[in-house]
From TrEMBL:
Protein name per Swiss-Prot or TrEMBL: Uncharacterized protein
Annotated source species: Pseudosulfitobacter pseudonitzschiae
Superkingdom, natural source: Bacteria
Signal peptide span: 1-20
Gene3D superfamilies: PEBP-like (3.90.280.10)
Alphabetized UniProt keyword annotations: Signal
Amino acid sequence: MNPFFLSLPVIVLSAGLASAEMRAHVSAPWDGKTVPSGQQCTLNGGTGKTPPFQVTGIPDGAVMLVVEYNDKSYRPLSTKGGHGTLGYPVTGNAGKFPAVPGLSAKLPSGVRVIKKARGSGEYASAGYLPPCSGGKGNQYQAEVKAINAQGKVLAKTKMDLGRY
């Protein structure tokens, strides 16, 4: 019997175990399907905050999660943090991250604004712009990137926030 064929499955199996996939999902009261009541922008009667969320599979060497919040249904704010980009400090390979206030650059727990939302006029925000479609059913999503101290993206994943 050829020893190469016996060792091949072991090599493939161990390679699969070494690279855990990063995953992110929102925490209660968010469910990833519908934006919770009150979490929309002030123009729509809310006092919205970012959703709290959990991430697993954060790669070794990551020092920050960069989260780009987007309205996938409204092209001008659908990519690259249209609703703002925030940085959350990380330690370890998994974590729970808090909700932080919308429309503000003053954030708790070491969270910081990387790029403010791209809305203008009455939709302008110093940081995160909560969902502000007026309840038209727009799909909100975030792209979560784990970065190292040099700013290199080590892993990324998407996180559904819900419709509003």
